[in-house]
Amino acid sequence: MTALRRALGDLVARHLPARARALLFPPRYPPGAAARLYCERRRRQKWFGTRSFWEPSWDILLYLFDAWETGVASVPVGQLAALGIAVSSDSIERWLLALAAQDYVELSGDAERLCVRLSAHGVATMARYLEEGSRVRYPLGEPAARP
After folding, report:
1. Which of 10, 44, 58, 110 shows its CA 20 to 30 Å from the CA of 51?
2. What's the pLDDT tens digit per position in 21-62?
3. Residue 109: strand, helix, or coil
4. pLDDT tens-digit readout, 51-101
């Protein structure tokens, strides 16, 4: 069945106009999803720059901002490793050092129990970024809600 479905999909992709393909085989993602992700990356670049800023650091900043919003003063670095960030504990520490060098986070404690929290600059930048995000209009419109 899968081979037949793939062959039918290839046939449709080659011979039907895009509009007809979209009606017969609607995407499983919201319209404009790629454009929205692209815009989000550019917006994130505007606020945080590109130097030493990749997905693990973004996961860390989001987690720490959420912790800050809920009143958690600081988070043990070991807790970040348990989040499912797709890097090793050593890599998390390197990401934290890079974020600290850019004044987004502050590290405290000792080698036994290293803790991290957002700096005042980190909180302010995340808050402005999220506030702007609530007002952004994307080039292809807001993605439609999934049924």
Report:
1. 110
2. 666 666 565 556 656 766 777 777 788 776 656 778 888 888
3. strand
4. 656 778 888 888 888 889 888 889 998 888 777 666 778 888 899 999 999
Q: Which of 54, 31, 32 lies closest to 44, judged by CA?
A: 54
Q: CATH number of 49-133: 3.40.190.10, 3.40.50.1010, 3.40.50.1820, 1.10.10.10? A: 1.10.10.10
SS3 (DSSP) at 116: strand
Positive or negative, the Cα torsion across 104, 107, 108, 114? positive
Q: Which residue has the tokens 């790629």?
A: 34
Angle at 37 between CA 33 and CA 38, to 5 degrees: 115
Q: Please state, in angstroms and as integers, the Cα–Cα distance from residue 54 to each residue in 49, 57, 110, 143, following that order.
A: 10, 6, 26, 24
Whether the model pTM is above 0.70: no
CA dihedral 32, 38, 41, 45 (to 10 degrees): -130
